[in-house]
């Protein structure tokens, strides 16, 4: 299963959490939960970072209205939960 398929499966199953930082950043950019979920379900992986000792990070990019939005996420080491690290509008 590809990384985007794993991400989409976790979202569909409700196996995700937001960090406090992701909540703050999404509020600052006026992004709603449904916007972020839509990016994760319909966007594509833009970047993959494997150099983090906490695990591989994925940047999923998708459109919200007229803006491109990035959602940065990673799986817990056991793969049971998708952690949404931050969210932002691409400048």
What do you see in this structure?
The protein has three helices and five strands. The protein is an alpha+beta fold and 91 residues long. The chain has helices spanning 3-12, 20-28, 33-42; strands at residues 16-18, 44-49, 57-64, 67-75, 82-89.
Task: Give the SSE layout.
Elements: H1 3-12, E1 16-18, H2 20-28, H3 33-42, E2 44-49, E3 57-64, E4 67-75, E5 82-89
Parallel strand pairs: 1-5
Antiparallel strand pairs: 2-3, 3-4, 4-5
The share of residues in helices is 25-40%
Instruction: Count every helix, treating DSSP H or I runs of 4 or more residues as helices.
Output: 3
By secondary-structure content and strand pairing, the structural class works out as alpha+beta
Text of the CATH class: Alpha Beta
CA radius of gyration is 12 Å
Q: How many domain modules?
A: 1
* Total DSSP E strands: 5
Shape: globular
The CATH architecture can be named as 2-Layer Sandwich
Summarize model confidence as the mean pLDDT: 96
Q: Biggest sheet: strands side by side, in what order?
A: 1-5-4-3-2
């Amino acid at each position: 299963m590809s990384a985007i398929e794993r991400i989409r499966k976790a979202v569909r199953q409700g196996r995700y959490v937001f960090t406090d930082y992701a909540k703050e950043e999404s509020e600052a950019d006026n992004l709603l939960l449904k916007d972020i979920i839509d990016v994760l379900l319909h966007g594509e992986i833009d970047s993959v970072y494997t150099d983090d000792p906490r695990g591989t990070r994925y940047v999923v990019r998708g459109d919200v209205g007229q803006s491109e939005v990035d959602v940065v996420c990673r799986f817990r080491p056991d793969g049971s939960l998708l952690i949404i690290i931050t969210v932002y509008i691409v400048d």
